[in-house]
Write a structure and sequence with these properties.
By secondary structure, the chain is an alpha+beta fold. 35% of the residues lie in helices and 14% in strands. The chain is built from 6 helices and 4 strands; from the N terminus they run E-H-H-E-E-H-H-E-H-H. Strands 2-3-1-4 form a 4-stranded antiparallel sheet, covered by helices on one side. The chain is globular and about 45 Å long.
Length: 173
C-alpha cells in the first residue's frame, strides 16, 4: 500500500475537489442550506477564507486560504462532512467497511487538494470553479448557476456577468 502524503503549506491557499460517494445523488444542491451551515459551523471553530466555491449536485470545488501558521485542512473537511452528514436523512447504501468504522456512506473518504502556487495558478483554478456548471451542462453561462462564488466576483467587479457565456443567436460555423 502506498503511503499517501498531502502537500501542506502553513497559511497556504488550496484548491479542493470533494465528491459524494454516490455520484448519482444530488444531495449537495438539494440540501444547500445544510451544507452552508456546515461550512459556517466549522469556520467558527477553525477559521479559513473561502476564496471561491461552486457547489454541484454531487461534488464541489473550492479554494481556501488558511490562517497563518495553520495547515490542517483535513480537520476542516472531516468536520464539514460530518456536520452535513448528521443532518441528512439516513438510508444510503453503506459498505461493510464503512459499517465497521461506523461511517455514513454520503461522502467519498478522500478529497483532492492542490496547493496554489502563484497568482496565475490561483486565477486558473478560480476560472475552473466558475466554469464548472457550464462544463457539466447545467447552465449556458456561469451567472445562471446559483451555487457559486461567481456572483460575488460579479458584485466586486472582478468578472463580467456574461463571462464565459454563450449567446444562443451566434453562428459558430
Amino acid at each position: 500500500m502506498t503511503d499517501y502524503r498531502r502537500y501542506r503549506v502553513s497559511g497556504g491557499t488550496y484548491f479542493f475537489t470533494v465528491n459524494l460517494a454516490d455520484r448519482k445523488r444530488t444531495l449537495l444542491t438539494e440540501n444547500i442550506v445544510l451544507l452552508r451551515n456546515a461550512f459556517r459551523e466549522v469556520k467558527i471553530a477553525h477559521p479559513f477564507h473561502v476564496d471561491a466555491v461552486v457547489i454541484m449536485p454531487e461534488h464541489l470545488h473550492t479554494i481556501w486560504t488558511l490562517p497563518e501558521g495553520d495547515d490542517d485542512f483535513s480537520l476542516r473537511w472531516r468536520q464539514i462532512k460530518s456536520a452535513f452528514s448528521r443532518k441528512i436523512e439516513t438510508g444510503e447504501r453503506i459498505s461493510k467497511s464503512r459499517t465497521r468504522k461506523q461511517e455514513r456512506g454520503i461522502w467519498q473518504r478522500r478529497f483532492w487538494e492542490h496547493a496554489i502556487r502563484d497568482e496565475s495558478d490561483f486565477a486558473r483554478h478560480i476560472d475552473y470553479i466558475h466554469f464548472n456548471p457550464v462544463k457539466h451542462g447545467y447552465v449556458k453561462q456561469a451567472v445562471d448557476w446559483p451555487y457559486s462564488s461567481f456572483h460575488r466576483y460579479v458584485q466586486l467587479g472582478i468578472c463580467a456577468r456574461n463571462w464565459c457565456g454563450f449567446e444562443d443567436d451566434l453562428d459558430y460555423e
